[in-house]
Amino acid sequence: MSFGNSENKKKKDIVAAIPNWGWLLISFLVAIVLWFWLSVNPSTARSFPFLPEVVKSLKTMIERGVLWNDFSSSMISVILGFILGFITAVPIAFMMAWYRPVRYIVEPWIQFIRNIPPLAYVPLVVIAAGVGRKPQVIVIWLATFLIMCVTIYQGVRNVDETLIKAARVLGAKDRDIFVKVIFPATTPFIITAVRLGVSVALTTLIAAESTGAVAGLGMRIRSLNNSFDVPPMLLYIIIIGIIGITSEKIIKYLERKFTGWQETREI
Questions:
Q1: Residue 145 sits in the same domain as residue 233
Q2: Phi, psi dihedral angles at 250 (to 5 degrees)
Q3: Which of 106, 104, 75 is nearest to 88 (CA)?
Q4: Where is the signal peptide (predicted)?
């Protein structure tokens, strides 16, 4: 038994000895090696051109003047849709958790709609709102609202009932309980909802930009797919991934700032 414990301790020491940037470098190198293998494997070479071809396509898209237009157009739709989703999800989630009539009326429909892929209701949005920016924002808003509303709602429902009862005993009103008890206790769930909302906004982008968009990362991927122009299509997919991981890092930084009091478990 002691021999097994010493072996586990030695493995943990080796893992701890490598800094975070070292693991990041190892992860990057593993990805590059896998990418290279996919680029030379006959069955996958056409779908995964290697780095030089993707870099060349980057230069081509910049020279054509479409990369910045596509990036900025998508970011406008994502940011607007996400903001609308957040500012509508927070009050509705709190009302669902606090008032049973609201919960009984609203929750079944939220659970029903959130299981429908965004691509399925894109035609309905286009018929109702036309083409252009508006339907893109509506699709992203709806997708982000649903996931954030459910996450925040679960957070409010998981607040320790003892804290609420103690606040009531001390004479706190509903407003005081919301501000001083429920909101601080729900902050980790709100940040998790933000993280999920950003992810859903990006994954919904291609569906959102199938609403007659004239520019955008998702629209360009669909256009390049139709012409089987793989290197720039892979480039745009990588750009969306970079946007996602950058957003994740920013949210983690904010999470440390706002929930530094919360205990975390080291594995």
A1: yes
A2: -65, -45
A3: 106
A4: none
Q: Could you give the angle at the alpha carbon of 12 between the alpha carbons of 10 and 13, nearest 5°?
A: 65
Q: Are residues 28 and 76 in the same domain?
A: no
- State the residue range of the domain holding 68: 49-259
Q: Quick check: pTM over 0.85?
A: no
* Claim to verify: residue 115 and residue 31 sit in the same structural domain: no
First to last CA, the chain: 21
| pLDDT of 220 over the 50 cut | yes
Residue 127, token pair as written in the block: 């018929």
Examine residue 2 and state whether it is found in any structural domain, yes or no.
Answer: no
Q: How far apart are CA 191 and CA 262, in angstroms?
A: 13
**Which structure tokens are listed for 102?**
């609201």
Rg (CA), the chain: 23
Half-sphere exposure of 211 (CA within 13 A, CB side): 30
Residue 6 belongs to some domain of the structure:
no
What's the pLDDT at 5?
55
Single-letter code of the amino acid located at 78: V
pLDDT tens digits for 183-218? 777 888 888 899 999 999 988 888 888 777 778 888
The C-alpha angle 234, 240, 243, rounded to 5 degrees, equals 140
Q: Are residues 90 and 216 in the same domain?
A: yes
Q: Please report, as a single letter, which amino acid is at residue 157.
A: R
- Alpha-carbon distance of 86 to 80, in angstroms, equals 10
CA geometry: angle 69, 140, 245, nearest 5 deg: 70
Nearest to 110 by CA among 156, 138, 151, 77: 151
